Amino acid sequence: MTSAPTTIDTGHLRDRAERRLRDLRAALPEPGALPARTPITGGELASLRPSPAAAVDEAIDKAASAFRDWRTVPAPRRAAVVRRLGQLLAEHLGELAELVTLEAGKIGAEARGEVQEMIDICEFAVGLSRQLYGRTMASERPGHRLLETWHPLGVVGVVSAFNFPVAVWSWNTAVALVCGDTVVWKPSETTPLTALACHALLRRAAAEVGADPEIHQLIQGGVEVGEHLVDDERIALVSATGSVRMGRAVGPRVAARFGRCLLELGGNNAAVVAPSADLELATRGVVFAAAGTAGQRCTTLRRLIAHADVADALVGRIEQAYHQLRVGNPLEDDVLVGPLINGRAYAAMQEAIARAVADGGELVCGAERLMVSGEDSYYVRPAIVRMPAQTAVVREETFAPILYVLTYEDFDAAITLHNGVPQGLSSAIFTGDQREAERFLAADGSDCGIANVNIGTSGAEIGGAFGGEKHTGGGRESGSDAWKAYMRRATNTINYSSELPLAQGIRFG
């Protein structure tokens, strides 16, 4: 249960943030119209000046100019910047994690985990710098060799979201830099301070290893700043994380100028719980995936598809666990659920629950707002809603801790329910039946980019490619061969003979 409400002094938080930014003061622009607020209280931490159109254009120009030299630096030498960045991130892990908590409202463990994820992707990218492999193919012509090579793509525009204010940036930036690209980063206007800190550390890393700090540029502001990035032909790849609505706007505009897009959009993730499942294991997996980060992850578990034989027992276990989750100030060590990012998120949650109840749903628990630190902060108990069917509201993504519970009798029906939403990011099954597990992972099983067995939908590791299908956008970031999105492929034919045979046996003249 939640302890007595706690009041947090906004001025104290502002002072704390200022101390954490003391060594990065040179990166702070003059005060302006871009407020950095904390969802912990709703109060303002700092006020920054958004990047005007001229500054955005200048940042892209600097990145494009830096690319001309950066692309010729050998990849293992490029990795020196990323290696040093990882070291600096490790040195400042605590300070960066506190900024993430202050700006995004994450509890300490999750904030530290996000910074650690940056360190991990730096290590991955350093190793990757020696593994940007091409391929040699057999030529049909004698005395010829056929191969493919990979080359740096250009300037990569990174648009990131508030819920992972630094990790997703690092997934793109660490890999792009070792691939020989330069980066222009447009972070969420909700989390400008974490962006300033990471930008300063990366430029410091570049300077310390003798690289050009202009390989990374930071632009700040709202939609108009992002639109400038999307429409500029000097941006070879736009990697954008956000809503499906944002993706629908970004994708066609980049395609119209024949640029490349890497889209990480909405998720409406589900877990199937079979009769053979270990319910204790399933409960732990469901609670963390559904309530962690106050339901504000793209991989948050939003739909629970439980077999009718275990649904009542499972919901009872989850409800009991929810009552034990402490909701409150994320700066306190024993809090497990922090605030929603703002009032709009709270209003969307309440609207979704009202629609679900109107559709015949039963609110089992949660959804009430807790007055932890004032009128401008939004703390809510995670909600469970049992639904008679997968209605329109269930098929939508609401970025809040709502878990819709559906039941099934037949495994094929469970798969149909699971895949019956527009999004296709992450998925899970809890089962002790190997056939069910294998079927879930097969071509006619989960249609998501991530499919797990006996583990929840969140908590992806950087070694695997991250991304989803359908309205999630189809992009892949982080591990595996996701690096190929940041490079261009060239097919090369080398004739080392004294003849000039044509392909397919063609004779000319």
From TrEMBL:
<dbReference type="Pfam" id="PF00171">
    <property type="entry name" value="Aldedh"/>
</dbReference>
<comment type="similarity">
    <text>Belongs to the aldehyde dehydrogenase family.</text>
</comment>
<feature type="domain" description="Aldehyde dehydrogenase">
    <location>
        <begin position="34"/>
        <end position="489"/>
    </location>
</feature>
<keyword id="KW-0520">NAD</keyword>
<dbReference type="InterPro" id="IPR029510">
    <property type="entry name" value="Ald_DH_CS_GLU"/>
</dbReference>
<dbReference type="InterPro" id="IPR044638">
    <property type="entry name" value="ALDH7A1-like"/>
</dbReference>
<feature type="active site">
    <location>
        <position position="264"/>
    </location>
</feature>
<dbReference type="InterPro" id="IPR016161">
    <property type="entry name" value="Ald_DH/histidinol_DH"/>
</dbReference>
<dbReference type="GO" id="GO:0004029">
    <property type="term" value="F:aldehyde dehydrogenase (NAD+) activity"/>
</dbReference>
<dbReference type="InterPro" id="IPR015590">
    <property type="entry name" value="Aldehyde_DH_dom"/>
</dbReference>
<dbReference type="InterPro" id="IPR016163">
    <property type="entry name" value="Ald_DH_C"/>
</dbReference>
<keyword id="KW-0560">Oxidoreductase</keyword>
<comment type="subunit">
    <text>Homotetramer.</text>
</comment>
<dbReference type="InterPro" id="IPR016162">
    <property type="entry name" value="Ald_DH_N"/>
</dbReference>
<protein>
    <recommendedName>
        <fullName>aldehyde dehydrogenase (NAD(+))</fullName>
        <ecNumber>1.2.1.3</ecNumber>
    </recommendedName>
</protein>
